[in-house]
Predict the 3D structure of the following.
Amino acid sequence: MDSSTTAAPGIDRKRCRLAGDLERLHHVPLFKGITSDVVRMFAYLSERKNFRDGDYLITQDEQAQHAFLLVNGAVHISVNHREQEVLLQKLGDGVLFGELALLANFKWFFNAVCVGDVDVLAISRMSFQKICEKYPDQKDTLIERLIQLRVDRLVSQTDFMLDQLLYRDVKGAAALI
Amino acid sequence: MELTRRPLFYWVLHRYRGLQLLLLAIIVASLFFRVFPLEMQRRIVNIAINLRMLDALYLYCGLYMGSIIIAGLMKYGANVLQEAIGQKILIWMRREIYQHLLQLPLSFFHRTQTGTTVSAMGAELNAIGSFLGGALAIPISSFLTFVVFLGFMVYLNPLLGFITALIYPIELVIIPLLQRWYNRYNRKRVAANRELASMVNEAVSGIQEVQGSASFELEQNKLDRIIQRLYKLVVKLAVVKYGIKFSNNLFQSFGPFLLFLIGGYLAINGEFTLGALFAFLSAYEKVYDPWKEVIEYYQLYQDSRVRYAQIIQLFDVQPQFLLSAPEQTVRRFKGEIEAKDICYSVNDRVQLLNDVSFHLPAGKHMALVGFSGSGKSTLSLLVAQLHHPTSGTMTIDGVPVQELSKTEISSNIASVAQHPFIFTGTVRDNVLYSSNALYLNDVRPAVADSAAIADIIKAVGLSADVIRWGLSSVISDGRAESMAAPFLAMRRIILDKFRDEFSVAVEFYDTDAYLDFSSISENLTFGTFSDSSSTERLISHQHFRSFLKDQGLEVMLYDLGFSIGAATTDFLGDFKDDEFFFQGSPMNHTDFDDFEKLVEKVRKQQFTALNTKNRDKFLRLALDFIPGIHKIATLRDDFKEEIIASRLVFLQDIADIDLSLCAGTTLQTDIGVLNGVAGGDEQRGLSGYTPFCTSRYLPGLSLRDNILFGNVINQDLIWARLDNLVLEEFERTGLIKAIIDIGLDFHVGSKGDNLSGGQKQKIAIARAFLKKSPILILDEATASLDNSSQARVQAYIESQLSDNTTVIAVVHRLDMISGYDHIVVMKSGRIVESGTYADLLTQRGVLYGLINDSSSGD
Ligand SMILES: Nc1ncnc2c1ncn2[C@@H]1O[C@H](COP(=O)(O)OP(=O)(O)O)[C@@H](O)[C@H]1O
Ligand SMILES: [Mg+2]
């Protein structure tokens, strides 16, 4: 962080985790054009988590606390419907999802299931709110982006489902996991 | 006498009479010692000084001081006694009012804001307490004192005495007048205060709604209005209160004025001695004391009367049932329930139930279904005597429900409300709540044992939760000793068979691996300390310090600590006021300013410019650094290697641990032997230290963490991984009961805040099941449960409660009703259809319609 002091023996400057996460966040559309200080704070407050194949990153009906940036691996978004789990979307590297958790406290209305090993950066609602408090001028932009993200996701999920309906036997419905 | 008819003095006159008499006696006796010094004063001036008699001076002075001390001590005793009497009466009063309150009909609680009740029971009663203690003694003794002093003055000089006495009647007119104003404002103030309490209480209970609709402005305005009104009232009160004070002072100075004028005149003419003038002046001042006391008493009395009237008025509702039937023993019914032409209306207008009749034989199960708002809950409350029919009769085994005492109702009926209430306390307290109440009422023998509780917990699907709570507990060393073995066995199973599966969620303790989710001090000592301030203790621990020096670690850690400190102060300068932002650094946010100064100093000069104490602050920062959590810095791999190498030295040389034993795979179950592994503990001052040995139970950690033997790095995954494994294994070893027992001691938080909606409802159902009463009422009791728990509870009702328990269940899911013997369909307060499930379906009536609607409209 501060390179002017003489190199401390214990600190690794080449593989600084904070710098790595900052780099990742910079590539997320949500943070495009957002002040570097703000993004750095998000990197500082975000948490790295690992999951395995089949683990539930998000479980429907549980309280929403975090949004996730998919660093590595793939995730299936699904919804429980009539005792079945229906696939809605497949997400891959670099995608931010669960973004609504940053804005409000609600119960998840979908599942996110890991496909293969998965690394994520988790951003809590509390962090988001605290950062917005400190940088009020960036808040509107961030919220607008989040809503846009949600709209895009809705459109692509609807497309996905309509495709399923159109190109498959209607009774057999969407792909079941 | 009926509670709400009692006047304020009822409480004073009916108890603690002996104590009050004693108080009065003390006060009367002290009178003599209050007048006596005045006489001594007169004699000192007139006799001792005038006649220049030293002996007499000493004698009179001695007597003067002596009697003042005695009077002071008596006053002291009287004050304490008065307070004690007041509190005794208050306790009695509060108990009776509370008991009355708990028995009031539900409608009282719907109408009355909680805040109002709370403030009436609390602060307002307290204010009365200080009055009650002296309610009798003060006026009597003040009056006597007044008379005695006045008599003394008349004795000194009749003319002056009578003139002085004349002033008081004038005051007797003015003060009460002012007081009446005071009372009027005070009444309004009490009311406004209550309104304030209710309002805040309402906003706080509805905080979700308030924040959800961002109605801060709105709530603020409500507050402002009341505060404004309060402000005006308090100002008016002050005007009157200080007006009373002012007139008092005026009268008080008016006396000496007359005294000097007339007494002086008499003294100049030689008709009055100087000594007598002194004594008279003192007496005048003294006579004012009881007068002031009477006035204060009067004010306090008025104040208390107002408060008391308002409290009593608030609770002026009569309980609608008998608490217990004294001549009868508590009956146990078979549970036959019959409703005949029941009508129920509130406020004489709104008709909630209309001509409801049904007959339910003992042991049969009835389902109440129908639209929301059709009166199902109301009907079930009527059976449980929580409401009273306006007309018609509800009977249990032929006895009208109104005639039953509360004790009989509670021992025969168990119910689960639509929104069950959870009390602050443990899970066990809550599931046993009703059973304990019966036990206290002498209706039932002591409550079910843990095994019975465990069965019910399982029946309502709460086992998994209770087991999790149990596993999350840290148990005492004594208890651990007897239970450790199976946990260590579990640990072994995970380490041997499931290491890979868990590795994504757990960072296992491993002598050869650096622990990213432990602090550097834990990495070095590779163990836990039973107290939390372990870093602090290590820093001042001689052996540890020399170990750091020998390993060449001290300087490295100073440097590391400085880098972390500098990075934190550079990075968080704008955020230093908020603790939240310090989660990524080992620095405590309160130490920020201190570190900022130190960092600056080091940058200007050098690290060695710091004194030892300040250097150690950086050392502590380094030792508390947890690489996996504190993002402010990243450790280099070769540094980690060095720490691991030093760790082995620490374990062998400082902690005296045989590594082959510690890391060995043979499981040692005897805790006594195990504690011997680190034999040198005490002499090296490492008390409370337990190394991370696979064979050791780790006392400071929860049961779960003892099983896992590592740092949990992904909370979301750990339970899913652990649940089945633990259940299977512990079921096999029979330890599940002990864990459930520990889990039952989990604290549910204030009103169950630590519980989910489903858990609360499961606890309420368990509470009702445990009561094992002949009648069970369930009001949408499973509505917030998951499907499998719902089915489980339903299965228990159908299998365990058929024929022995009469069940009335308001059922929200129509696919659950087929198991009921009798089905009643309600609409707008009437029964529109009733019969068996099969009959109603073949009739193709309302129920048939409901079922088809719900399955197609979903
Ligand atoms: N204390 C009360 N005062 C006035 N109306 C009430 C009261 N309690 C309930 N109600 C009304 O009585 C009707 C029946 O309520 P309830 O028995 O709770 O219905 P259900 O349980 O069938 O949904 C509802 O319209 C409700 O608003
Ligand atoms: Mg209801």
